[in-house]
Write a structure and sequence with these properties.
By secondary structure, the protein is mainly α. The protein is about 90% helix and about 0% strand. It contains three helices and no strands. The longest helix has about 120 residues. The chain is rod-shaped and about 195 Å long. About 0% of the residues are buried.
């Protein structure tokens, strides 16, 4: 049970009574001087400042979340773009490899045809040289045979008659 319900509490020698009376007087002075209103307005101002800080924090958090979402979107776009660039580069490399292979095959076929033509030309030239050598050899052999006939017979009657006809025709 509280002490102020006992008779000894209300004795003027009791220090608890004087502490209670001083407290009531102090609170009354604060009331008349507007201390409670000042404290309340200070607390209200502090509460308003805290509320504004919380609103600012919520706004900053929303901006940060929006920025994070934008960064994630840009990151995803960059990854997709990088993937498409890699795929395009791989396709380009395959096309280049195929083109190079085709060009190499065409170049090889062309060089083969040129080599075959050179071989054919060399064979034709060799055949012509063999024919020329055979003709030259045949002409020398014929010359030697005719020279030996002419030297052995002195003069050939057919040649003499041909020269005579030639002299008559020229006159």
């Amino acid at each position: 049970m509280p002490a102020f319900f006992h008779g000894e509490f209300w004795s003027l020698a009791n220090p608890e009574l004087w502490v209670g009376a001083g407290m009531v007087i102090f609170l009354a002075i604060l009331w008349f001087a507007g201390g409670f209103k000042m404290a309340a307005s200070g607390l209200d101002a502090k509460a308003e400042k805290i509320r504004a800080d919380l609103d600012e924090a919520a706004r900053i958090r929303a901006e940060a979340e929006a920025l994070l979402a934008d960064i994630n979107r840009q990151h995803a776009e960059a990854e997709a773009q990088a993937r498409s660039m890699i795929e395009a580069a791989e396709a380009h490399a395959k096309r280049l490899a195929e083109d190079t292979k085709t060009k190499l095959e065409e170049d090889l076929a062309l060089r083969t045809r040129l080599a075959e033509r050179k071989i054919e030309a060399a064979q034709a030239e060799a055949a012509a040289q063999v024919k020329a050598a055979a003709i030259d050899l045949a002409a020398r052999a014929a010359e030697q045979v005719l020279a030996s006939r002419v030297a052995g017979a002195g003069s050939d009657p057919l040649i003499d008659r041909g020269i005579g006809q030639l002299a008559a025709k020229m006159q």
